[in-house]
Structure formats: C-alpha cells, structure tokens
Amino acid sequence: MPAPRVSDAEFIELWKTHKSAQAVARAVDLAVEEVYKRRRRIEARHNIKLKSEVRPEVAERYKHLSQTEHNPRISIDITDGVIMVFSDAHFWPGVRTPAFRAFCMLAQKLKPKIIINNGDAFDGASISRFPRIGWDSKPSILDELTACKDHLGEMQEAAPKAKLLWCLGNHDQRFENRLSANVPEFQGIGGFRLNDHFPDWKTGWSVWVNNDVVIKHRFRNGIHATRNNTAASGKSMVTGHLHSLKVTPLDDYNGTRWGVDAGTLADPSGPQFRDYLEDNPTDWRSGFIVLTFKNGQMLWPEVARVVGNQIDFRGELTAV
Description:
The chain has 9 helices and 15 strands. Strands 2, 3, 4, 5, 11, 12, 13, 14 and 15 form a 9-stranded mixed sheet that branches. It is α/β, with parallel strands linked by helices. The radius of gyration is 25 Å and the shape is elongated. It has helices spanning 8-18, 21-28, 32-46, 56-61, 98-110, 141-158, 172-182, 225-233, 274-277, and strands at 74-76, 81-86, 114-117, 163-167, 202-204, 206-209, 213-216, 236-239, 246-252, 255-261, 287-294, 297-298, 302-307, 310-313, 316-319. Helix 1 (8-18) packs across helix 2 (21-28), helix 2 crosses helix 3 (32-46) and helix 5 packs parallel to helix 6. It folds into 2 domains: 8-63; 74-319, Purple Acid Phosphatase, chain A, domain 2, CATH 3.60.21. Strand 9 (246-252) and strand 10 (255-261) form a beta hairpin.
C-alpha cells in the first residue's frame, strides 16, 4: 500500500478545517471514497470522532428533504369517554359493508370523543406494485378518493363532535408514493398529498393516548402479532393490517396491557380481495374496536364483530 499523502495528524487538522469529505478530497487530490475510508481508519486508530458539518447554504437548499408530510406521533389525553377505532376499510365505490353501517350506527349511540382511522381506508388498487391478475377491473384513483370521502363523511355526520385522526397504512401510502416516485417536480402542489383531500382528518404514523396506549397501523406480523406488539413496545397497542380483529391481554410486573387488532371494516370476501385470495380461506374478521376510558384508565377493549348482516356487540346481535 502506498504511503498516505498526509499524516494522520495533518488529515485530522484538514477535517477540522473543512468538515466535509468533499472539501478534504479537493485539498489532498483524492477520491471522496478514499477520504471516507481514511476517516474511518483514523477514527478507529485514535478512538476519536471526526464530525461532518453541512454548510448553511447546502442545508437551506435541501431543508425540505427533512420535512415530513405527516405527524410522526399524535399525542392526545382523555379522562372519560370513548374512542372508536376502525382499520383496513379499503373503501371501494358502491360498497357499503355491514361493518361500516354498524360503525356509523354505534357512533351515533356511543358519541365517541375521538374516531381513529387506523390505516388503509384508501386501497390504491390501480397503483399497486403487484401486477394485474388476468383481466380484472379496478376502480380509478378518482373513484376511490370519492368513495373514501363519502364513507368518511358519513362517519363525521354520525359523530359530529368527534376528533378525527388517521394513522396512515401501507395502502394509504400508495397515493403519495406513486406521485413522488413518478412526478417529483410537482412536490408542494395542492392535491398531491393524501391529506389534501381529507382536511378534517389529522394524519400521522401513530396516536398515543395518555402515553399508555399506542394506536398505529402495523408493527409485528404473524398470528401472535397482538401479543408480540404489546410485549415489544411495553404499551397497550392497537394495530390493523392483519384483519384479524382480536384482543390479547398480557400481564407482567407492570400489570395488564392489551394487544389489539382492529380487524377490517371491509368484507373479507369483497371485491378488493376476491382475485388475489384465489378463493382461499382467511383468518380475517370484519368489525372494529371500541376503547372506553374511565378516570384516564383504559378498560378492557371491546370488539364489535360482524355476523352476517348483524353486529355482535356487548352481548347483543343487532341488524345493520
């Protein structure tokens, strides 16, 4: 290996002066990759950290890249009241499922303080990364957005005083991901973000309730996801994504917490899933979750489960 053009001490002084690999590379006439390698060797040999510093004009030029379009975490507090959580509605035009009708009916009755859309209200079938199946027909983006607006609007009418929150799901992300990947020049123009079309719903990646309950679209996967979610997070956690609709308690030295799957507001045999399921059975259940808080403490989460054209809730079957 040829001798280095500058000693370790000289390299360290150059780095302290220039604070970037590009500037040091120009000063010693080396490739940037070689400067990075030399920096790592010196850091390991001398047990030091050579920090980089972004020039102000560069930081200003690219500051938009560090800005997220959605809230990373929405924090709320509730002492007494009800939160209704639905997930994976995959709204399609012309389809009003029993679970959706039951949700609106119970929202009128329970008068929730908060409604949480826990992801995948928008399906994005026509912009899926998966190839078309045969000659199947999918709704347009406009038709799907209209269906979402109609359904979410009915929920608002059923509980007009409820705070409206939306934890984004992987299907919801299809809308912006497709646009940002294909027409990045249109960034910042109205209508190119999903929440431009739903101004009444505050979007984020997760909702934290009283710092004890975390609601987000997905975390762990598999048949034991609900238990693994709360075991890994140390919080009660409500997720969707897996469509399984269930409540799993977990007790340890800290007391009881719950892992909850909010199921799907869609019909498991609906047109959104019919072709790619290939008539296979699913461990999916249609319904939603009701969370009740007393004195700031969450009671045992309740499941509202669809049975045919009825809703099974609090020991009663009610036609919807």
